[in-house]
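User: Last request for today: this protein with AHG, please.
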Amino acid sequence: MSAQRVTVIEHLLSQQNAIPTATGRFTHLFNELILSAKIISREVRKAGLVDALGFTGEINIQGEAVKKLDDFSNDILLYRMSKSGVVCGMASEENDDIVLVNNENSTGDYIFIFDPLDGSSNIDINVNIGTIFSVYKRKSAASGDVCKEDFLQKGTEQLAAGYVLYGSSTMLVFTTGQGVYGFTFDPGVGEFLLSHAQMQNPQSGNIYSVNEGNRSYWDAQICNVVDAMKIDKNGTPRSLRYIGSLVADFHRNFIYGGIFIYPPDNRDEKSKNGKLRLLYEANPMAFLAEQGGGGAIDGKQRILDIQPTSIHQRVPLYTGSQDDITKILEMMSSAG
Ligand code: AHG
Ligand code: MN
Ligand code: MN
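Assistant: Here's the final one, the structure of the complex with AHG:
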């Protein structure tokens, strides 16, 4: 019964009661995030009817053609989060530089970093896509302007991280450091309602996820690691599942168990650290993975321990069940 289900704000308030220093200001941020997710979900679900598919004709800083829904989602999040009254600066995959929020009445000291639409290549073929977000506290003095260093914080500094998955249902999955919780959108009442409490990533799983089409670009060590992930500890072949939307691949592996890999490749200068971006893809997923009992590494170290140097920097990503992470670290360290 929807009436007994817990809403996101109810959940946040119950968590805040457990943290004396927490203020209700987090709920202002999540109120705007929830509204953004509802608006984007509505647009995604009727994209083919409102000329929201296809490209805008622009190329973003990633060198990628921008889809109309990338732009739409980015505009919604930039506008709504700037109205939260608690965000002082933002960084987005679709914006070259940081975006300062200068509301006269803002008491903002949260930094909001996001990938407005993840899995853009899947938009026009109606396959799962998502939004990814990460929240930090500013480090610079409140009296001054927000600066780059406020955005270049290690993933361990995240106050919250999560994603919205526009799938067969729309889900909001996030952590504030007290476990991972999933909320499913009920269009009948217009609310995200708790459907997955304390989500746990299985210690091992039967799935490996990697774009095998890139194999010819991988070095021998990475080929060995991927080959090792194709079988379980009994030597039984595992299943390859790869959707091409990080949010969807991560969500499936988080629930079923398994490993997702986006390794570096030698295709060109751009992909020497892989394709995924540290600030708004790897770090939020790493926070969720570890909160769920899994792991996330760049092949050698925790993703969350990496000191960022630029807001769009890329990083190799191996994330999923702890047994696989342990095995990959052993292989990488023994190969030196
Ligand atoms: P985005 O659409 O935000 O650029 O992200 C796409 C990413 C990620 O969602 C996915 O894991 C990866 O691109 C897939 O890349 P390939 O198509 O190269 O496998
Ligand atoms: Mn993405
Ligand atoms: Mn994106």
